[in-house]
What we know:
Mean pLDDT: 87
Radius of gyration: 19 Å
Distance between the termini: 63 Å
Strand content: 25-35%
Low-confidence stretches: none
Strand order of the largest sheet: 1-2-3-4
Amino acid sequence: MNxxxxxxxxxxxxxxxxxxxxxxxxxxKCDCGEILEVRAKDLLIGDxxxxxxxxxxxxxxxSKKWITHGLSKHPLYK
Length: 78
């Protein structure tokens, strides 16, 4: 099956590369601009959704949830 032109999460499949160690491998471009090689299986089962930027963005978003005002260490707060 050819996934060229399909999108999986933040990854857009550019082209089929080759079968490496019995696994179909595709060249993908992440929404952030990074180009990487991804196995077809990882795309299909959802193991690979980005180049890693999704995890970073999610961590940043989650850390901001717990900030109430950000001034608890200010001298006037005490």
